Amino acid sequence: MNEIHKPRSGSLAYYPKVRAKKHTPSFSSFLLNSDSDAMPVNFMGYKAGMTTVFALNQQQKSPKFNMEIPVPATVIECPPIKVFGIRAYTNTLQGKKVLIDVLTDKTDKEMSKKIHSFLNSKKKDNKKNSVLDIEKDIKEVSEIRLLAFTQPKLTGIGKKKPDLTEIALNGTVEKQFTFAKEKLGKELKASEIFKQNQQVDVKAVDKGKGFVGVVKRAGVKVHRPKAKKHRIVGSIGPWKPATIMWTVARPGQLGYQNRTEFNKMILIISDETVKVNPKKGFGKYGLVKNEFILLTGSVPGAVKRPIAIRNAIRADEKTRPRLSEITSFSHLTEKQGVKA
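RESULT FIELD:
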């Protein structure tokens, strides 16, 4: 019988493994359609927790076809976000560059504490841009996005300071500009952007583990009991040349890194919180009070962490779960939500 040979494991796709620069995730690319009407393609919510729902399996070749199966799902609370500005981009030789930012005159007091431009705008010497400035330079504009902030004060997580995000828009520049003017200073809901049974991508900063060794970080095999040291790498490199390759497993930071997961299907998008709330609330989160999205599978990030959601950029119908409407929820028992 052949011996098991397992020198190391752990993905080298994410390098270097360092802490995320900011707590709020943001997408760098979107699948935009210039032929459609101007509509937002991304949103931001807060992770409430996981639950299990039951639905009928509609995969015809499955041995459990037309049978009730459990489906793990993640609940993301999505209070409406407020649009406080319009950002116009232009194309340069160095890439996309911000041309003009137009901000609203009034906003929430929590938002005024988040950024200082609203406080500085009260000075007489400070000149504020207006929508007319974008109209003058509309030929130079390549894309228009909305500047928005979340409203965690509407949730029960005990947080008031909002998180900022950019909302990308479909359509031509003219359509984007018309839509942006209508939504300036108003609210956007998740139900206006996403639909049921739609595939979306999610991005978040995952749970931080701190400084850990090579066994937990890279899956290195623990040495035999007679060895002098057990939870180390056997050899980190040769004497000549005296160098350590970047592929060698080393101790360091694990977790609190940006992670993106593709093609999560929306099972439910609704404001009927009675369907999804456990009797004692979600552990370490509480009760969902606003509109929510129920996604298949798990989502990176800890509870209460902001989750960025966008339309799937590489949707795959083959991987879509074939499920009927949800028949029942298992989280409406007294056991869930007890842990704090």
